[in-house]
Specification:
The chain is an alpha/beta fold. The protein has 13 helices and ten strands.
């Protein structure tokens, strides 16, 4: 079968002229492996910057490479996936012809040494910074990027209920990552603070209601939160049952609350009705509410925290299993 030519002769000649220079071939060989800056290319090819930059400009103007800015440096890469079939065949032929040439082998060896040295520098940095890395990360980048990364794992289509939302702190954190947050509290003062905090977040709806009679439709939420709520509830089992009611099959309930403690002065100061929970208690109450406990564990205390230790418990509403009718029915 005769292949119909897809490239104009002048275009083919221009591409061949571009690849006819050994320096440009050497550059393309390295740029096919990874994105590189001018300084790295100069070291790998052992050529001055003026020479490397001049050839990179030709390759970029002819559509072989693309550049992007990173800080004060320009990074280059080979546009192999964006080239048409004729250009890719031409490059593949040129690449194979020079694959074993000593100068190309040495270029790649120098690049490997350069990258290995840079990796070793990073390894040495972390070896020296290990003891203070957490503090250094927070000083340089702030404390919130890890939370943002974890929240971005949530499915975007979810509806999450923030039960006993208080001033709306959790709702504010969740709102950018899910479709809807329903924030519920019975305290008018807390609701006013939550409404102010979430006023600019269209995905948050603040509702007044009791945790024992939630203003939320049955099986309408993908997840629900009870953060430092159950120790204030006169009947935590009823709150758990009502939380289970609003969950879709497979929906999750996340509880964070106080571990059992003996600080009655703290309980009275905070207006709480109980002195925390044992993990076994939460598991039993979750089961009584029709929820399956997935996992629970004590949370490590925060360095500056003065209250009792906390625990985390996660439970889910079971998914109804479809039954297969007997044969012949």
């Amino acid at each position: 079968m005769i292949r119909t030519p897809t490239t104009q002769p002048e275009t083919l000649v221009a591409r061949m002229e571009c690849l006819a220079d050994p320096t440009r071939l050497r550059l393309l060989r390295l740029l096919q492996q990874r994105e590189l800056g001018v300084a790295d290319l100069c070291r790998a090819l052992q050529l001055p910057q003026s020479t490397v930059s001049r050839h990179l400009k030709i390759l970029t103007d002819r559509g072989w490479t693309v550049t992007r800015r990173q800080g004060t440096a320009n990074l280059y890469r080979l546009l192999l996936d964006e080239l048409d079939d004729d250009a890719r065949r031409l490059w593949e032929l040129a690449r194979q012809e020079v694959a074993e040439s000593p100068v190309f082998v040495q270029d790649e060896a120098r690049l490997r040494q350069l990258l290995a040295a840079r990796e070793n520098e990073a390894r040495q940095f972390f070896a020296g910074a290990a003891a203070t890395w957490s503090r250094l990360r927070h000083e340089l980048y702030g404390p919130n990027f890890t939370q943002a990364a974890l929240l971005s794992l949530l499915p975007e289509h979810w509806t999450v209920a923030d039960l006993g939302c208080g001033t709306g702190e959790a709702s504010v954190a969740l709102a950018p990552y899910v479709r809807q947050v329903i924030a519920v509290d019975d305290s008018p003062e807390m609701l006013e603070a939550a409404q102010q905090a979430t006023a600019d977040l269209p995905g948050v709806e603040v509702r007044q209601g009791l945790l024992t009679d939630l203003p939320i439709k049955p099986q309408s939420c993908d997840a629900a939160l009870l953060l430092l709520v159950l120790t204030y509830a006169p009947d935590p089992a009823v709150v758990l049952a009502e939380s289970a009611r609003i969950l879709k099959p497979g929906g999750r309930l996340v509880i964070v609350d106080l571990q059992r403690h003996d600080r009655d002065d703290f309980r009275r100061q905070m207006g709480q009705t109980s002195m925390g929970f044992e993990p076994r208690q939460l598991k039993e109450m979750a089961a009584a509410a029709g929820l399956k406990s997935l996992h629970g564990r004590p949370l490590p205390p925060e360095p500056d925290a003065t209250g009792p230790s906390l625990l985390l418990h996660v439970a889910a509403r079971p998914v109804l299993q479809k039954t297969t009718p007997p044969d012949g029915n």
